[in-house]
């Protein structure tokens, strides 16, 4: 290995260590969290009125049991300075094996074990000062989204496999590196649009073939492409196509957005989607080169793979890291996803409990 390559590898390892942190629950803390999650699920989970304050109280109670080191990890994420936080040492909610064919979305959504996982995720979000929320124009306005192959496109066809596959987390298609939509702004509301989710949290009800979730922290990529390219990415010269998860008739393509913003509270905030973004045609070569450099940096990045189970959860900082996945190989895989709004984010609130934002 040449010195230059060795240096690059060491730098990448250093970044990964800083950007991807693990929080381990001890047994007592884990049992406490489990009980809070069950209590929250029994009133209907994150979508129920009152869940928000119950999750907050649970998080406050839990924090009393954490060590100084544990609190330091939570604070780093809460302040927006970490790309990914993995929670380990969590308890299972069920030992029931998945059926060969997944039940329909509604019956899955109403399962008690799903509500427990979602409730636990809502509490975990609160530990890092994020509030669970939904957008009015996405996921039918619901806080909890099940990530599974309901609409085809996986390695193995499903019953009634549709001809046209939806490019969203409800299909089985591979999804290239992206942050979650909407893409109008990242931290502060702009022109009637709330910012992108600050975080997304994922956990798994079933992941029988142990298929990983992949994350790509952006800081090493931005470091690599350099200052001029980063500055060019802060210009409003990019466009994106509408997401397939949006409510029918709502949400739209966007033009003249930036990819990077400088932000006083977190340093930088990003929005990007490798299969929805492009650079405007009539822009300078500086901007075009910057976009190419970013895409190349993302392409060449070595994603961190993490296999979710019921006993773990992963919070991804959606303004600092991209995530992606391979084609779904086992159609029994079911993840539970919730968006989180950080303490420093300023959205347009439609209703407070459950928290619904204008997208
Ligand atoms: Fe995603």
TrEMBL record:
It comes from the Bacteria. Keywords: Oxidoreductase. GO terms for molecular function: 2-oxoglutarate-dependent dioxygenase activity. InterPro entries: TauD-like_sf. This is TauD/TfdA-like domain-containing protein.
């Amino acid at each position: 290995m040449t010195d230059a390559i060795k240096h690059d590898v060491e730098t990448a390892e250093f970044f990964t260590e800083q950007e991807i942190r693990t929080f381990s629950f001890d047994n007592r803390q884990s049992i406490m969290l489990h009980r809070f999650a069950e209590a929250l699920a029994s009133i209907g989970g994150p979508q129920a009125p009152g869940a928000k304050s119950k999750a907050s109280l649970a998080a406050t109670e839990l924090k009393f049991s954490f060590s100084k080191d544990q609190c330091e990890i939570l604070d780093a994420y809460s302040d927006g300075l970490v790309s990914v936080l993995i929670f380990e040492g969590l308890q299972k909610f069920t030992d029931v094996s998945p059926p060969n064919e997944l039940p329909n979305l509604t019956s899955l959504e109403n399962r008690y074990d799903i509500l427990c996982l979602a409730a636990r995720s809502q509490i975990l979000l609160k530990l890092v000062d994020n509030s669970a929320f939904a957008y009015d124009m996405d996921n039918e306005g619901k806080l909890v989204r099940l990530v599974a192959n309901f609409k085809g496109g996986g390695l193995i066809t499903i019953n009634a496999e549709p001809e046209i596959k939806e490019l969203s987390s409800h299909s089985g298609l591979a999804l290239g590196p992206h942050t979650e939509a909407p893409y109008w702004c990242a931290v502060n509301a702009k022109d009637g649009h709330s910012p992108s989710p600050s975080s997304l949290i994922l956990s798994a009800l079933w992941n029988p073939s142990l298929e990983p979730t992949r994350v790509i922290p952006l800081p090493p990529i931005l470091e690599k492409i350099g200052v001029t390219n980063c500055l060019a990415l802060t210009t409003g010269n990019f466009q994106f196509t509408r997401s397939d998860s949006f409510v029918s008739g709502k949400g739209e393509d966007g033009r003249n957005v930036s990819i990077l913003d400088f932000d006083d509270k977190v340093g930088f905030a990003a929005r990007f989607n490798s299969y929805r973004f492009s650079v405007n045609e009539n822009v300078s070569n500086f901007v075009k080169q910057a976009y190419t450099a970013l895409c190349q940096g993302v392409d060449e990045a070595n994603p961190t793979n993490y296999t979710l189970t019921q006993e773990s959860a992963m919070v991804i900082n959606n303004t600092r890291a991209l995530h992606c996945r391979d084609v779904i190989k086992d159609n029994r895989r079911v993840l539970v996803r919730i968006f989180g709004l950080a303490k420093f984010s300023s959205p347009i609130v439609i209703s407070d409990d459950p928290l619904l934002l204008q997208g």
